[in-house]
Design brief:
By secondary structure, the chain is mainly α. The chain has 2 domains: 1-44, no CATH class; 47-96. The protein contains 4 helices and no strands. The chain has helices at residues 2-9, 12-23, 34-39, 48-94. The longest helix is centred in the C-terminal third of the chain and has 47 residues, at 48-94. The radius of gyration is 24 Å and the shape is elongated. It starts with a helix and ends with a helix.
């Protein structure tokens, strides 16, 4: 359950609701009291099997996202190296 709760709390609907709670009651800064946390409702499937299935799917998506981010970073690095190489080659060709 803690992993499902962690995924749930960073989901957009929960974030929005928690931010609204933090902004409520005329506060000058975002803060959530212990009472507000206690009053917060977090809905999840009662079936342990469904919970585990959700966690496995979310773990898989998280891993895929991390892999894509790594590939993207590598591509940006390769692009920058290629750009520098082309620029250096052009500058070399312009030299008398």
């Amino acid at each position: 359950m803690p992993k499902l709760l962690a995924y749930g709390l960073v989901s957009k609907p929960c974030k929005v609701e928690l931010l609204e709670v933090g902004d409520s009651e005329g506060a000058t800064r975002q803060a959530i009291t212990k009472k507000q946390i206690g009053d917060f409702n977090f809905y999840y499937p009662s079936s342990k099997k469904v919970q585990i299935g959700l966690i496995e799917k979310l773990d898989s998506i998280s891993t895929q996202t991390q892999n894509l981010a790594l590939i993207y970073e590598q591509q940006v690095t390769h692009y920058n190296v290629l750009k520098a190489s082309i620029l250096a080659q052009e500058l070399q060709n312009e030299s008398p």
